[in-house]
């Protein structure tokens, strides 16, 4: 029943489907006074930023859980702005709500975006983004004490630790950081911290002044990250709930112990014990990608910087490996959408870090990240546990890896079978683009002996030929034409005749 609904849906479920909202989201507590409401959503700060930035048209982006407060926020900002300033509410995001939706903002010719709620803080490249994270309560003293206790009870004490937190606790981060430094300074442990910025402006010329050695002193500290000299193995003290951001942190810092304090439950535990299970699940997906010959590159973002160079790099990498690739833009993912591409054996999702890891149990094909694809395409795959989700870092590291793979290409036996860990059998991989055509771009149309147009080097055409049902038979010239008859007239709810 599930298979049938995935390939052919009536659409009736759309009107009855409940909207899932994040229970651990950033919605404010009920019963706030007008002044408390304005403080929770930083109304004065946003009004000042919009005015000082000279933005005539500003888009206000809300996730589902904050939509009930969109109208009061809109009115509060309008009261503080000049009459020539226009505000637009963006409710339904094109992709994940954690990313700034530059595409929707451009539809109203907005000059800036105010992003409310949880944010993945991915770099954009079109317009400035002002962030309002909300202010979730946290007991500063209890958080510091439990994190220090968890660190001491874990064994050997390090020389330094890194403090990280969920974006909703940005307003208390400095207080927790101060308490941690006071407690850990007595045992000579340094606490490193990288502040979460409240604004990202890719159009600012000052961003080019940032270097690995320091920051432009004219930049305000809340608008730029503080550089840290931490190692990958330094323990991480994290404040926040269990969410996708924490999962990504566990994967990208697999060699570092992560101690998490949850302000809601006021508990602290060592989270890095889950890292091995997460990596094992992702490694199983990589093995399924190794068995694939036809890939679909899913465009999961149109706003994260460097997404276009990364898509181009993926197409070139797949073509160099003689794999077939199709670039597909489907918006928000669901099994019904991807089931339409039955010829695709594996999907590669290009999205922000928090939307990149998809648990594909409900999907008919595996979904991997660009980093996992790079591992799957290696002649002799090796994985030391390091995990990369940042686009720019992926492009830099993949360029060095591609050059070494090109060096090994001439030493490979193209007819050598590969052993599949999924099926437990040897398989011969299909090789596309051997005759000089690009396996990742277009295909040439040629005419068959029967006079029909067919696509040369097309994985979709090969899949179609292998299907038992190929559509209705074409009987051109075999049947006499029918006699035209007068049909019904009028509209569907009441025709003028009963014929």
Description:
The chain is an alpha/beta fold and 499 residues long. It has 3 domains: 34-132, Rossmann fold, CATH 3.40.50; 140-206 and 219-270, Diphthamide synthesis DPH1/DPH2 domain 2 (Rossmann fold, 3-Layer(aba) Sandwich), CATH 3.40.50; 287-499, Diphthamide synthesis DPH1/DPH2 domain 3 (Rossmann fold, 3-Layer(aba) Sandwich), CATH 3.40.50.11860. The protein has 16 helices and 20 strands. The strands form 6 sheets. Strands 2-1-3-4-7 form a 5-stranded mixed β-sheet. It has a 5-stranded mixed β-sheet with strand order 6-5-8-9-10, covered by helices on one side. The radius of gyration is 27 Å and the shape is globular. This is Diphthamide synthesis protein-domain-containing protein.
> Biggest sheet, in brief?
5 strands, mixed
Trace the largest sheet across and list its strands.
2-1-3-4-7
Average per-residue pLDDT, rounded, comes to 79
User: In angstroms, what separates the terminal alpha carbons?
Assistant: 38 Å
Number of domains: 3
Number of strands: 20
- Report helical residue fraction: 25-40%
Quick one: CATH superfamily of the largest domain?
A: Diphthamide synthesis DPH1/DPH2 domain 3
Oligomer: single chain
Give Rg in angstroms.
Answer: 27 Å
Query: At the third CATH level, what is the topology name of the largest domain?
Result: Rossmann fold
Instruction: Tell me the strand percentage band.
Output: 15-25%
Quick one: CATH class of the largest domain? Answer: Alpha Beta
Uncertain runs are 1-9, 205-228, 436-442
Protein name: Diphthamide synthesis protein-domain-containing protein
